[in-house]
Design a protein that fits this description.
Helix content: 25-40%
Order of helices and strands: HHEHEEHEEHEEEEEHHHEEEHEHHHEH
Bound molecules: pyridoxal-5'-phosphate
Structural class: alpha/beta
Number of strands: 15
Shape: globular
Length: 369
């Protein structure tokens, strides 16, 4: 008997979530209404921040933030060499220059020791990514940014609920960015949110997401800048509000699955992720490194034959065609850890809906590589 294929990711949308969406559809108020406001309040309360701005997707959060901060041509923004491509694309989209820094070989997060050496008089911001849901050394990064008068933006797309020394990822920099793509802990299909304690920035972001409307004034409709339309729909927000109630359960379930992987994957050719004691991982992705004796593409194919979806987990951004042609960086030499994670890494399925039998099957398959 052949078992059903186990995909790399699969969102857990329940009947109760669907009912909440349908309720909103029945009201006829479909865009940026009560549910968006409710979701924003819930995120603020959870993270302990004063402003949350829900938008259309995780990439828009950072694009709007860079716009609001006035980052433009001639400005440099430090980004990790390993991330989802969007982290660097948003810098390009406002005309800025991404300056890549290699990642740590074990945490896959930006190598803090290398940040200072990349700061120049043109550096305006650092975008620190909490890669795969493991909080970066964000307090140390914050200190470097403060010392140099550089803005810190957190790309916490994968890291809702992740923590560093008891502080939530996304709540430490000037702005924190979240994504609600189906690969993340809670999802609205497409969706994103920015959090900030800076009221001025929050109002700029509220203007930018809604055509440039004067967000500080409820009494009149005036447009004070040329903005975007990045409003979230109310039915998407209802879906998020409904799943948000389960967030802690989702994170706990993921931790339990990760614990099984960490104790039962015993293949010496596979390097397991490490989680420092000061951090709470949100396990958006369980990422292992294959040693030199294993070929990444061959392993993905073999896992597929065994009924399991796997893939590499993030791009070595300077090695992607656009960046390679524009900046001509030798990633293998300049960003060896990011390049290795990109070419020798493997993301394996980890989500709430996995049954014990499926988890057994995944462990057995990885052990057989
Ligand atoms: C998912 C992700 C994004 C982009 O989010 P979208 O909602 O897909 O636009 C950005 N950065 C990181 C690190 C991500 O994982």
């Amino acid at each position: 008997m052949s078992e059903a294929f186990i995909p790399l990711a699969s969102p857990d949308i329940r009947e109760e979530d669907i009912e909440e969406v349908v309720k909103v559809l029945r009201t006829g108020n479909l865009v940026q209404g009560k549910s968006v406001y409710e979701f924003e309040q819930k995120v603020c309360n959870y993270l302990g921040v004063s402003n949350c701005i829900a938008v259309t997707n995780g990439t828009a959060t950072m694009h709007l933030t860079l716009k609001a901060l006035g980052i433009r041509e001639g400005d440099e923004v430090i980004v990790p060499a390993l991330s989802y491509i969007a982290t660097a694309n948003v810098v390009e989209l406002v005309g800025g220059t991404p300056v890549f820094v290699d990642t740590d070989p074990f945490s896959f997060n930006i190598d803090v020791k290398q940040i200072e050496g990349r700061i120049t008089t043109r550096t305006k911001a650092v975008i620190a990514v909490h890669e795969f849901g493991l909080a970066a050394d964000i307090l140390a990064i914050k200190k470097i940014c403060d010392d140099h008068g550089v803005i810190l933006i957190e790309d916490a797309a994968c890291a809702l609920g992740a923590m560093e020394q008891g502080k939530y990822a996304g709540s430490i920099g000037l702005a924190g960015s979240f994504s609600f793509h189906p690969r993340k802990a809670i999802t609205s299909g497409e969706g994103g949110a920015i959090v900030t304690n800076n009221k001025k920035l929050a109002n700029e972001l509220r203007s930018l997401r809604n055509h440039g409307i004067d967000a500080g004034r409820a009494d009149t409709m005036d447009f004070v800048m040329a903005g975007f339309n990045c409003r979230m729909t109310d039915f998407q927000a209802a879906l998020l509000v409904s799943q948000f109630k389960r967030l802690e359960d989702i994170l706990q379930t993921k931790q339990q699955i990760a614990d099984r992987y960490l104790s039962e994957i015993k293949n010496t050719k596979v390097v397991l992720p490490r989680v420092p004691e000061t951090k709470r991982h949100s396990w958006q992705t369980f990422y292992v490194l294959l040693d030199e004796s294993l070929d990444q593409k061959a392993c993905i194919a073999r896992m597929k034959e065994m009924g399991i979806g796997t893939n590499y987990g993030a791009q070595c951004i300077p090695a992607q065609s656009y960046y390679l042609q524009k900046y001509k960086l030798n990633s293998q030499q300049e960003y060896p850890n990011a390049f290795r994670a990109y070419t020798q890494g493997l993301a394996i399925p980890l989500y709430e809906k996995l049954s014990d039998a499926q988890i057994d099957q995944i462990i057995k398959a990885v052990n057989s590589l």
